[in-house]
Amino acid sequence: MRLLALAPLLLVSCVDPYGNPMNPFGPQPPPPYTDQREQYRSQIRDDSQHKNQLAYERGISDARADASAGLTKSYARHFQSYTATTQAAYQAGYDQGFMPTLAPFPGATPQPIPSPVYTNPGSAYTPQPNNDPTYSQGYDFGLRDRVAGRPNDPGAHVGRYDPRNRRSFERGYLDAYSSAGR
What we know:
This protein has 182 residues and is mostly helical. Helix content is 47%, strand content 0%. The termini are far apart.
């Protein structure tokens, strides 16, 4: 009789290895993607990164043109040059393009600052590090959650990656979730 009284308590007290409560009857992890679906996802990810890189470079170009024309700094005047998904990349490029040029010594011709690859970590676009499997794993989970209509919650996947790499996983997850399908 005592064993039957403890059974509900044991089920309620299920926690994952990190102390988060979990439902023992909850949803199972999503099945792996087929090769065709994985190729599609890879292509979409590459297209998204390419569009953001182009928007970033266009922002630099527009900012340098505005600066040389003596206009005030305002990326919004070029609203036709970016979309809602590429706005952060364009704005980062525009900000970069408005930075002053460097002259090696007084009287020398200023040399423009070279255009770097867009790597603003606070935006929807961050190039995926090829050597970071935790970022890739986060990206995959973020894309799966977005496609499945689940809420934006990287914390729902705690325990599926090494906790020492939490920031990398969350960065990948948020990048995928915010850029997928928009």
